[in-house]
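quick one
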Amino acid sequence: MNSQQLFRRSRRRFAVWYALVMGGILSLSGLGMVRALIGAHWVALEREIESTAGTLHDSLEPMLPASANPTDVLQRIFPDLCIANQPCEADPSLIQRHTLGLSDRTTYYIRFFDNQGDLLAYSPNQPNPLPSTLNPAVWQTLEIEDQSRYHQFTTILHSANHRHAPGAATHEHPSWGYLQVGRTLAVFDAELQRLRWVLIGGLPLMLGLIAVSSWWLSGLAMQPIYQSYQQQQQFTANAAHELRSPLASLLATVEAILRLTPEQTTQVPTLLHTVERQGRRLSQLVSDLLLLTSLEQDTTATPLQPCCLNDIAADLTEELAELAAATDIHLSSQIPDAGIYVSGHESQLYRLVSNLMANAIQYTLPGGSVVVSVAADDRTATIAVKDTGIGILPEEQGRVFERFYRVNSDRSRKTGGTGLGLAIAQAIAQRHRGQVTVQSEIEHGSVFILHLPWSVVRTSRDIAKSDSIRTP
Ligand code: ADP
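structure w/ adenosine-5'-diphosphate:
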């Protein structure tokens, strides 16, 4: 399987899992929300029925004499009620009337039963057919033939002179009868249906959107991995290419030595020097590659320590003075008195600054100059390496930090450069939470600046003082 297929398959798998998990979570929470909504609606509905029935019950009880004919009493209070087992002629104007707190007579119906559970009277808008004997369950949901549903509340009614005696048994105080208040569930059912449609229509739409966004997101997530993979591949190809040339040249030289006749043995030392040079180049390349890898993997176990940038700049100026002098370049430094310290790995910082300085010397023509300066502001410590060399074109300036990138391959190879120097410098700077930047003008020179977050500034006087305290 090639890398393209592998990445496409990983992206597909990632998108599918993402869609499944997100779809599952959203579906469950959607269903949960709908259930909670329906539950809240249902509770509100029952509370409304109960409060209507309570108002009616409390208003009605004082009007119910124990001795009178219950039907007559009811007809007096509710003239629009139909009497059980008698033909019922509903008067629409009466049905609309507000009676004893029951204002909405189109939504609610009421029924009265005697204390034996036989139907006494009912409001004309009661759904048909309803049983004429009492079902004493407090709450009932009824579904009648035309599929319409009703929710009904049943409560007991006592006559006007009845008093609740604490501890008295129920059979000693028989009830007057029962009141049933029912409410149509048409609005509730319509709302339920609407929610069902929203779910049926919305869920697939939502799942579709999740699928599309999962595909897009998985693409975004795979992008950096793919780029890093491509960079690794490019790096391997470049490394192989870089290793091939010195190896081929080394093998050719060795073959030439082997083919020498006894009379030509005087050439051996020269050829062996070439072998040594190629060997060194190979060794340099391999150690640079290993260093880059270890910097990226961050495998160094050594702890960070305070590193004095002034010392690094001064030591390297001294060390490279001979190289600069050999190519007729004036190397100088501008180092402040105050010690500028950063926390880091000293050997790596030496390597970084030495790469910048060696480049400055390498890419400056004889007679030019290189200046190393150390400075610090509120937050950043800097080491700037400024030269009057050949400069770098603006379009090349971003690329010089890429591995194996050389502005001028031939010249660079001739000077022994591997094209890894600035990549290593940038990797070290990044490991120290800093970076290397470049400003350059062609034929006027370049400035490479290392920016590092700095921790403490100690003046040379401070250092001397602390040294004298330590010395017994
Ligand atoms: P090399 O080992 O070839 O010097 P580097 O990574 O150190 O590789 O540098 C990359 C390229 O950047 C070099 O090939 C060179 O062309 C350019 N470069 C680096 N430093 C300077 C400089 N001070 N002045 C001009 N060009 C430079």
